[in-house]
Amino acid sequence: MNALQLFFKESHQLSSDDLTFIADHFEKVSVPKGTVLFEQGEVVDSVYFIAEGVLHHYNFNQEGEKVTLELHDGPCFCTDLESFSEVKKSKDACVTLTDSTLYVLTKDKYDALINTNLKWAHIAKDIIAKTLIKMLDQLKVVSTKSIEQRYLELVKNKPLIIQNASVRDIASYLGTSRETLHRIRKKNIFA
Amino acid sequence: MNALQLFFKESHQLSSDDLTFIADHFEKVSVPKGTVLFEQGEVVDSVYFIAEGVLHHYNFNQEGEKVTLELHDGPCFCTDLESFSEVKKSKDACVTLTDSTLYVLTKDKYDALINTNLKWAHIAKDIIAKTLIKMLDQLKVVSTKSIEQRYLELVKNKPLIIQNASVRDIASYLGTSRETLHRIRKKNIFA
DNA sequence: TTGTTAGTGTGTCATTTGACACAGTTGTTG
DNA sequence: CAACAACTGTGTCAAATGACACACTAACAA
Q1: pLDDT tens profile A125-178
Q2: pLDDT digits 0-9 by tens, B33-69
Q3: In a 10 Å sphere around its CB, with 0-12 CB exposed, 13-18 middle and 19+ buried, how is residue B96 labelled?
Q4: pLDDT band (50, 70, 90) for residue B190
Q5: How many beta-carbon pairs below 8 A join chains A and B?
Q6: What is the pLDDT of residues B99-125, one digit of tens each?
Q7: Residue–nucleotide distance: A167 CA to C1 C1' (Å)
Q8: Would you state the pLDDT for residue A191?
Q9: Which of B5, B14, B149, B178 could form a cystine bridge with B18, CB 3.0-4.6 A?
Q10: Of B137, B134, B165, nearest to B151 (Cα)?
Q11: How far away is chain B from the Cα of A102, in angstroms, using its nearest Cα?
């Protein structure tokens, strides 16, 4: 069983036929560090399941500075939902920071899947709902915890992100400057 | 046609039979200022459509301070998705700050609705997806704009929130102290 | 009326932060 | 190798912020 099937099996009760059915819809690809999944101005026509790898999801603010929106660490799903589901040009870009293993689901196949029957429509809904719950929790974390607390949790829970993303990008992800993050790192160097 | 039906009609193509079908599932209630929709420790068993009214969605951090998660201004949906969809105790509370008109959908009726056919399952999915897109955008705004910019946009776009929420709660919503928000208000008093 | 509570306006002050500047390091390219 | 670009470490300094303190107001209960 591959990482994609394992993910589905753990979150939903699915038969082995169901798991085969899923595997038939996704295409497995291995890509090197630096691969662009999507870019600003493109319509994102796929959902990516990251089996393994660290990805940088970012855009540019009014001043033209790169702003990190998300640092993904598989296994998890990744796309620009607004671009994908409403067929709009994306405002963001997403690039691999490590060699990665991905499972790609195109919009055609996604539509076919969720129109097959109620079960798949509900699974899609549940995955989106779980993502929303995670984002709401993230918003809670951002508004209640300090930059330092969040950095230390990242070190603990997502070491691959710390190892593969630059200080600048991590600082941007945490909503601070690279100098301030440097001060935090220096202070916690023995921890 | 009521506010609920108008909301559904604008976001999805629905027949008048569909709109009647929806109205049969929701119950309209008018509640005074100070009404508790749900509280910490309760399982939230309904989705609320806010036709009119301002609501305060908050919880308490480790230090026991009230933290504002959201200030709702109808028309929009409101619930604790994690508590509602996974039947867990809520960590948050939600209270009306004005007299409000709500349409209530209980979990039983919600389940009946989304199991009726693919159409309703897709509509539920689309509403959740739109909420997710809105929250992702909110996270972008939080990480790219200053407190002052966000306050001024709130004044412009959501005057009812400014009029009905306390300075303390708005400051908490923006992620700052009431003193800092006061400085911003003083500076922009003529704008 | 008085007392009480919650919220707001405002000043002071220590701390934190961001902006800037610059040196050192690493990696890449010709 | 040399040149260059990108990133990181680090110091200085001005500005923004939070913490604290206290007066003032409004709402409400006794």
Answers
A1: 999 999 999 999 999 999 889 999 999 999 999 999 999 999 999 999 999 999
A2: 999 999 999 999 999 999 999 999 999 887 888 999 9
A3: buried
A4: low
A5: 90
A6: 999 999 999 999 999 999 999 999 999
A7: 65
A8: 52
A9: B14
A10: B165
A11: 23
Which single residue is written with the structure tokens 């082995």? Answer: A16
State which nucleotides on strand C lie below 7 Å from a protein beta carbon: 7-12, 17-21
| Superfamily of structural domain B3-107 | Jelly Rolls (2.60.120.10)
Across the interface, do A143 and B69 touch by the CB < 8 Å criterion? yes
Distance, CA of A176 to CA of A189 (rounded, Å): 19
What DSSP assignment string belongs to chain A?
--HHHHHHHHHS---HHHHHHHHHHSEEEEE-TT-EEE-TTSB--EEEEEEE-EEEEEEE-TTS-EEEEEEEESSEEE--HHHHHHT-B-S-EEEESS-EEEEEEEHHHHHHHHTT-HHHHHHHHHHHHHHHHHHHHHHHHHHHS-HHHHHHHHHHH-HHHHHHS-HHHHHHHHTS-HHHHHHHHHHTTT-
Nearest to B135 among A67, A132, A143 (CB): A132
The reply to whether B166 Cβ lies less than 7 angstroms from strand C is: yes
CA distance to partner chain B, nearest, from residue A35 (Å):
23
Return the pLDDT at A11: 87
**pLDDT tens across A93-109, in order?**
999 999 999 999 999 99
B138 touches chain A (CB under 8 A): yes
Whether residue A67 lies within 8 A of chain B, CB to CB, comes out as: yes
pTM of the predicted structure, to 2 decimals = 0.94
Amino acid at B93: A
